[in-house]
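Supplementary Methods. Inverse-folding protocol.

Structures were first reduced to a discrete structure-token string of length 514. This string, shown here, constituted the complete conditioning input.
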């Protein structure tokens, strides 16, 4: 009897033992990923990412030489670079749990409230809680539909202000010169601040000029510094030297942004009646105050949760949306036949009054144009870094725990094995051969918003704002390139890939604006 009991007790242990050695044997049979040659002592391949080319294009060139999956050494850290959709699918489906964490980088320590921003927080209860609140209260398709009147009102107001500017500044040919990159930036800031804070910064007779400039400057610096590869991230013992002064700049930017957001938080607390409850029309910060005040989650207090989440939305949404609109207009101006097709579509669908949600839904060529813009110029061409939390096999190669994962979205989305005329701007592809390709994380050939558990939660909001803004601007104004040269397409790399130079354009109303 005792022997039977002992034998029965051993069965689970034997199964567990066999499973462990099966996994170990399977992992040991795998091969090591190709490693890029030419690593520097101590720094590894870090100098590669500081060259004249943007990092996503540098890594794309290396993929042509080493294949779609390879390893680089960033100081003491290994980074797996993936460059094709098959490997991306394996990472964000089969291995999604193992790659859902984030490495703790210098920028995250200083500028994300020590990873309290849910976009860079470790995968766990805190991340799930804050992401859920943010999605339900501001970013879900249902919530975006409820709040659509906010950004529709801002777009209409901005169009009217542009019309008034034209009235005062038109030349003898009837056109006025506008710097479109700034116009997009101010409009998107107003939309996001209205939804998050119930306030706007920019208008024709702007009040809060100093605050507006201060906020925009700090956010732009934040997005730039978040994409910097620092020596301290690669070689921790060299961090003290702060080569390039990046860490000092991060601390200063973080302090500036915290001061701005703390001021917003104090304003909301003072304007809210003591013990009052949030009603259905209050902004996102009020909702978070009501839901989180007095709470602590994983050691993060309520104020930090609120400030870090507001920063995530304001910085993330304003920069990515305005960047997408800027690249879209650059590509349209460089391809006059695309502009002509867009104007024809708007002429058929649009009326002289404001474009409705129903009108926008019928603009299939405009939707294809935005999709093609996001294919060629994803806002974050190198998806935010992930980190393997366990040993894995990817593409038949061994990947050890602690390795960073960098997904080259730009290379995936310009892969000539997938896309015909892969580097050319052809919106028509999404109405014909590629019309069924989704860009919301289901089809891994097109991943401008990422994929898996860490996919961007603001897809619906971002696309609706881009479609409405672009359609409205092109519907109400004729546009001309003031130069005989096509728009400059030089890139400045940060967390997002922005246009280096301004985008000057000539505008003239083509329908009545009232």
């Amino acid at each position: 009897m005792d022997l039977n009991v002992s034998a029965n007790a051993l069965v689970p242990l034997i199964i567990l033992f066999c499973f462990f050695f099966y996994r170990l044997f399977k992992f040991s049979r795998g091969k090591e990923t190709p490693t890029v040659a030419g690593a520097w002592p101590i720094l590894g391949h870090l100098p590669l990412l500081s060259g004249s080319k943007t990092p996503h294009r540098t890594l794309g060139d290396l993929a042509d030489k080493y294949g779609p999956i390879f390893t680089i050494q960033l100081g003491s850290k290994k980074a797996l670079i993936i460059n094709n959709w098959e490997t991306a699918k394996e990472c964000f489906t089969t291995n999604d749990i193992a790659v859902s964490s984030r490495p703790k980088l210098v920028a995250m320590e200083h500028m994300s409230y020590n990873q309290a921003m849910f976009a860079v927080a470790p995968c766990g209860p805190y991340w799930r809680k804050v992401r859920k609140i943010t999605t339900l209260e501001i970013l879900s398709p249902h919530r975006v539909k409820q709040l659509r009147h906010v950004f529709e009102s801002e777009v209409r107001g901005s169009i009217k202000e542009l019309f008034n500017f034209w009235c005062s500044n038109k030349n003898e040919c009837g056109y006025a010169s506008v710097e479109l990159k700034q116009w997009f930036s101010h409009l998107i800031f107003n939309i996001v601040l209205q939804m998050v804070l119930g306030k706007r910064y920019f208008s024709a007779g702007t009040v809060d000029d100093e605050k507006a400039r201060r906020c925009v400057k700090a956010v732009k610096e934040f997005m730039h510094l978040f994409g910097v590869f620092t020596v301290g991230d690669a070689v921790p013992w060299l961090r003290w030297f702060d080569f390039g002064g990046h860490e000092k700049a991060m601390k200063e930017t973080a302090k500036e942004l915290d001061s701005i957001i703390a001021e917003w938080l104090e304003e909301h607390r003072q304007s809210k009646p003591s013990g009052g409850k949030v009603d259905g029309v209050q902004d996102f910060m009020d909702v978070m105050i009501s839901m989180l005040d007095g709470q602590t989650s994983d050691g993060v207090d309520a104020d930090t949760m609120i400030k870090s989440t507001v920063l995530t939305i304001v910085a993330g949404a304003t920069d990515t949306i305005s960047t997408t609109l800027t690249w879209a207009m650059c590509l349209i101006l460089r391809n006059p036949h695309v502009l002509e097709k867009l104007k024809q579509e708007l002429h058929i669908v649009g009326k002289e009054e404001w474009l409705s949600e129903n009108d926008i839904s019928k603009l299939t060529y405009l939707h294809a144009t935005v999709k093609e813009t996001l294919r060629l110029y994803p806002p974050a061409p190198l998806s935010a870094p992930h980190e393997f939390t366990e040993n894995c096999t990817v593409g038949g190669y061994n990947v050890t725990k602690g390795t960073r994962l960098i997904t080259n979205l730009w290379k995936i989305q310009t892969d000539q094995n997938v896309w015909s005329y892969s580097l050319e701007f052809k919106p028509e592809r999404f109405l014909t051969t590629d019309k069924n390709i989704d860009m919301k994380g289901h089809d891994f050939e097109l991943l401008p918003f990422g994929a898996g558990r860490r996919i961007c939660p603001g897809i619906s909001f971002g696309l609706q704002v881009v479609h409405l803004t672009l359609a409205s601007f092109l519907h109400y104004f004729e546009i001309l390139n003031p130069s005989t040269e096509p728009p400059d397409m030089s890139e400045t790399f940060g967390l997002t890939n922005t246009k280096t130079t301004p985008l000057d354009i000539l505008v003239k109303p083509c329908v009545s604006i009232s």
